[in-house]
Design brief:
The protein is an alpha/beta fold. The protein has two domains: about 15-225, YjeF N-terminal domain (Rossmann fold); about 235-495, UDP-N-acetylmuramoyl-L-alanine:D-glutamate ligase (3-Layer(aba) Sandwich). About 40% of the residues lie in helices and about 15% in strands. The protein is built from 19 helices and 20 strands. The chain has an eleven-stranded mixed sheet, sandwiched between helices. The chain has a seven-stranded parallel sheet with strand order 5-4-3-6-7-8-9. α3 links the parallel β3 and β4. It starts with a strand and ends with a helix. GO terms for molecular function: ADP-dependent NAD(P)H-hydrate dehydratase activity; ATP binding; metal ion binding; NAD(P)HX epimerase activity. Its cofactor is Mg(2+); K(+). Belongs to the NnrD/CARKD family. In the C-terminal section; belongs to the NnrD/CARKD family. It catalyses: (6S)-NADHX + ADP = AMP + phosphate + NADH + H(+); (6R)-NADPHX = (6S)-NADPHX; (6R)-NADHX = (6S)-NADHX; (6S)-NADPHX + ADP = AMP + phosphate + NADPH + H(+).
Length: about 500
Amino acid sequence: MLDTQLSSSLSYKLFRADQVRENEAKAAEKSGCDMFTLMQRAGDAVYQQCQERFANSDVFLVVAGQGNNAGDGYITALHAKQNGKRVILCAVEPERKLEGDAGKAQQHWLDAGGKVEAFDPTFIESADVVIDALLGTGITSHIRNEFADIIDALNGAQTPVVSIDVPSGLDANTGQSLGRCVQATLTVTFVGIKPGLVTGAGKQSCGQLIYADLGIGKAFQSLARPCATLLNIDHFKGMGPRDVHSHKGTYGRLLCIGGNKGTAGAIRLASEAALRSGAGMVRVYTHEASIIQVSAGRPELMVTDSDLAAALEWATCIVIGPGLGQDAWAEATFAATMKHCQSENKPVVIDADALNLLCQQSTAFTINESILTPHAGEAARLLGVSVDDVESDRFNYARQCSQRYHAVCVLKGAGTLIDNEERTWVCRHGNPGMATAGSGDVLSGILGALMAQGLPVDLAAKYGVVLHAKAGDDIAQLYGQRGMIASDLFDAVRALINH
């Protein structure tokens, strides 16, 4: 049986921006420091990351707003200046005197001989690195034009950008762009990792994400409860050695259903992925026109186009959806499968076209052990909202989907989410090379195989998503992202699951 080793480290826990704002002062006090000390530590952390990532950078451009994020920027600028760098510091309102800790940081910069200038786009061309200290986590509405113009200029240039805490213009909780959003090369986030930085468009906007607890991590963790958890392959022990006296029946009987006329490849990918993920026996129920395409070259698959009832009875676990279609054959197959799984309380993975059929009959079926695997478009149909709605608040809609269908929802995409109605996990692995036909079918086969081997539905969903994404990363590291195809994942998944 697979086990998890979830680290208690804050670097794997997510906290909403408001949780950080409400608790960081108390955490600082418990840790024996004040908020200005945190600001100094934040600026130092950003400068140190610049030194590590952009070691030969001699010219720093710091663009500052008006709040504490700007204060972090002033401290970063001061560190750079004190270390012999040429620093250009631009503020949205260069004559404005800031207040509180940010004002204190600004005064430190001025006392050291620093200047505050109006922004000029030509400054970007002369800089080796840009520090984005425009807007922090407090912004929740569309940004003003003067900020948008600077963000456009940064995004239009080739100079690397390091964002402080969050890319300016990004909603730290949802990952939604608030009209404009800096596309950072690197983001250094503080105290707690915010959920909007690790999924969807927010993950893209952050570039490489670095976490710094500023020395108050333990105290903060004692005050705030995480809203989600990051997962990577190191959190799982693996499946462990098989018993010497086991046999094929020990590892489950998985039935994969799909492959309508013209779409045989989808169910073939899912079923072969299931074999490579350790399922003992895999049977495919498919359209009569797809029999040859599914079985050709893979004699280990048992393939049939008749007697669905008998196939359902045989199975201990089911995957339905890859290549299923939405015609009369698909509808009849879907209805029979769902009725069986409901009456027999049989675990099922519902993917692809089966999700589209499910949203038409959402009140007809409730299955306790089920995993739904929608991408944003399928999730939008399942919930009766737009794709933009889903992508603008992925955590919210993953939870809505799991609650409406009483299932574990795997919301696919950059930073895939796994939600079980009560908790949310985010996969750290994965890359754009996996955005290719059949990749989701492979995932459904992996998930089905893990449940067939006896893993509880929550654990199967978490481990399966991480296995699939890490396999994609391993292939990309070997050969690059472009040209990756879904079946490339088979050997990588097999290697990982045996590690």
